[in-house]
Structure formats: C-alpha cells, structure tokens
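Sequence, please.
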C-alpha cells in the first residue's frame, strides 16, 4: 500500500459528515417547505438514498484506480474530452466556494447584528474566506486529520443543540402542506446535492487504505449528515416561515454557538470545494501544485462572494445536475458495466461519448418538464447509461487519437 493511502473509515465518516453539515444544505432543505414535513422528508430520504449511492460509486473508482474524479473521465472521454469537464468542474467549484462564503457571511452578520449591533458583511466574507485559506494551508497531512475530526465532533454537538430547538415545535409535523411544489421536484433537489459532490469524491477516496471502508464511511457520513441538515431546514421553514440559518439559530437563542455552527460548517465544507478545484485545474497544467491552485480559488471565490447573488441558488443546483448527471452516467456505465477501467494514453477525444453526454444534457431539461416521480436526475442517468451501453458497439470508432505508431484506439 502506498504511504499516502492512510485515510480510514473514521476519516471518511467525519470528512463527509463535516461536508454535509453546512448552511447550503439547510437552505436547500428549506426549499421543500411547500411539500409539508411528511412528504418533504420522504422526498429528502429517497433523493439522498439514490444520490449518495451514486456518489459513493464514483468514490470507489478513485480508490481502486488511485486517480482523482475528473481524471477518471479520461477513461470514457479521452484526454481532451476530460479537459472540458475539468473546466466545468472548476467553474462550479468556484461558484460553490462563493455561494458558501456569502451565505455563511450573511448568516453570521445577522447574528452579530442582533447580538452586538456589529454589521460588517464584507468583513465576514473576508474572515470566512481567510479561515478556508488557512484550512487548505494545513493540508491533508500532519495535524489536519485531528483538527478536522475535532471540528466535526464539535459541529455534531452544536447540531444536536440546533435540532433540539427546531424540533421542539411539534406543530411542524402536523402543519398542512402549502402546495406549489411537486414531489418529484423535492426528490430532484435532494438528489442534486450529493450529485454535486460526484466530480470531487475520488479526489479524497484515492487516499483510502481500504475501498470498502472508504465507501461505507463516505456513504454513512454524507447520507446522515445531509439528510439531517435538510430536515432541519425543512422543519425550521415550516415553523418560522424562514429557512435562513441565522433566523433559526437566533430564534433558538443559540448565540455564540450559532456562530460556531455557521463558521465551522462552512470551513469544513468549502475547503473541499476549493481543494478539488485545484485538483481539476492541474489537468490543464500538470506541473502546478494543486494546493497552490486551491488557495488561488479560495481568493477568487472570496472576491466573488462580495458581489454574488444567492437568489439563484435553486437554478444553480439544477444546472449542476444537467451537466454532471449524464457525465457520470457514462463514466459509471463504462467502468462498472462495460468494464473499461484503464485510461488509454492514445485516446484524445471520444466523440461518441461526448455526443451521448450532450443528448443526456438535453434529456435532463426535458425530464424536468415531465414532473416524473423520481425527478430528472435518476431517469436521465438511467436513459443515458442505457443509450451509451447500446451505442458503444456502434460508436467505438468515433474517436480522435494521437498520431503515433500502432495507436491503441480507432
């Protein structure tokens, strides 16, 4: 086993629980308020059951092949094809970094305004961005494991306090749904959150000491953490009419504990976005240091947070689903069903795979309009995977390879 492959079950359990405990997940859960608690919680559990399982399948590839998530797309799309998805992934991760920072900064600012009349949104953006910067500097080595574990355990305790206050109002469970949202929309908004981590998970599972333990640690940590946050957001939005974590925590009289939840949860989640953006970017310049790029992404995301508009949050989630659902449907089909598990160094572009992916993107928006009970992500992944499986025997010549003696493709 490689010396760097040292992360164990507990590390993945805490890593992904920490990633799930975030302001963004609470906000997403609040979007499901029109469904009411019973139907909304069903949509949350069903969506996360499916989405987290797909997420972990991507992580298994990383552990087995010891490659980052975006590099795994080279198996299906070739070296140049994977660059397209590396670029898209960097863009979505910069977007996530900005959204996480601004949403946390707004919540923290609301709390400090109420507690001490301290109103400095810009300063909070800079402080939270600076803490993420520091988290990346600490890196995966040395004391980071212990610091991250301590932070997540503290978050766990603070989240229990938050849950106790939110669910104290038992009327939440009996309140009639407000209407205006279909069950399929709730499932879709629950699936796309774990799906948004698919282009990242292998960046971390490639360092696991055991594939099965990494998979179960990741699945349990993210599933329970994310469902918990969604349910808190849903319950709070039903009870108070607001899903803003700051309003929830102020109503719960959590005070300084509220600041701890917001700041810690944002740091433990967003450093993963910035770090993976660095991992994806070095596909363009292999000689670059991924940590250095991650630090630059953090700075860019922090500056973007100063002007970001999080009102388009739901649309942002759906855009991620449209791009990465068909992409990983093809990658997972290639790896687990067609058994194509080796990167062909001669393959530059697989035009056939790119064509199927483009069809999948179009299908995603069509499925959104159909209001299917499972949303759009699952149907489009099934259809795209089947389409690729059937088409693979006919499009295996639609490739562009290096001009070299005895090329291995074509």
């Amino acid at each position: 086993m490689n010396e760097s492959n040292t992360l164990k079950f507990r590390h993945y359990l805490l890593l992904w629980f920490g990633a799930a405990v975030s302001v963004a997940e609470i906000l997403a859960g609040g979007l499901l308020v029109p469904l009411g608690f019973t139907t909304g919680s069903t949509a949350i559990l069903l969506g996360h059951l499916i989405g987290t399982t797909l997420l972990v399948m991507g992580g298994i590839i990383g552990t087995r092949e010891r490659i980052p998530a975006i590099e795994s797309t080279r198996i299906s799309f070739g070296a140049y094809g994977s660059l397209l998805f590396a670029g898209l992934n960097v863009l979505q991760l910069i977007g996530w970094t900005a959204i996480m920072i601004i949403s946390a900064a707004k919540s923290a600012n609301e709390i400090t305004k109420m507690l001490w009349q301290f109103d400095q949104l810009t300063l909070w953006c800079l402080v939270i961005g600076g803490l993420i910067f520091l988290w990346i500097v600490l890196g995966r080595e040395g004391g980071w494991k212990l610091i991250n574990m301590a932070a997540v355990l503290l978050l766990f305790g603070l989240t229990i306090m938050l849950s106790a206050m939110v669910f104290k109002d038992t009327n939440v469970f009996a309140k009639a749904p407000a209407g205006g949202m279909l069950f399929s929309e709730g499932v879709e908004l629950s699936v796309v959150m774990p799906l948004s981590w698919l282009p990242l998970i292998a960046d971390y599972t490639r360092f696991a000491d055991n594939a099965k333990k990494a998979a179960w640690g990741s699945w349990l940590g993210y599933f329970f953490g994310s469902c918990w946050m969604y349910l808190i957001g849903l319950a709070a939005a039903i009870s108070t009419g607001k899903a803003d974590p700051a309003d929830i925590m102020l109503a719960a009289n959590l005070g300084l504990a509220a600041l701890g939840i917001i700041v810690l949860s944002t740091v433990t989640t967003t450093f993963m976005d910035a770090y993976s953006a660095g991992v994806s970017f070095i596909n363009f310049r292999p000689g670059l240091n991924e940590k250095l790029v991650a630090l630059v992404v953090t700075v860019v995301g922090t500056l973007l947070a100063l002007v970001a508009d999080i009102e388009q949050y739901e649309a942002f989630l759906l855009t991620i689903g449209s791009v990465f659902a068909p992409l990983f449907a093809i990658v997972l089909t290639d790896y687990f069903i067609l058994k194509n598990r080796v990167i062909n160094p001669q393959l530059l572009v697989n035009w056939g795979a790119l064509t199927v992916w483009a069809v999948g993107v179009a299908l995603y928006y069509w499925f959104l309009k159909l209001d299917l009970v499972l949303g759009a992500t699952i149907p489009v992944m099934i259809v795209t995977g089947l389409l690729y499986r059937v088409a693979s025997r006919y499009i295996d010549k639609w490739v562009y390879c290096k001009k070299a003696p005895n090329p291995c493709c074509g």
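The chain has one domain: 9-324.
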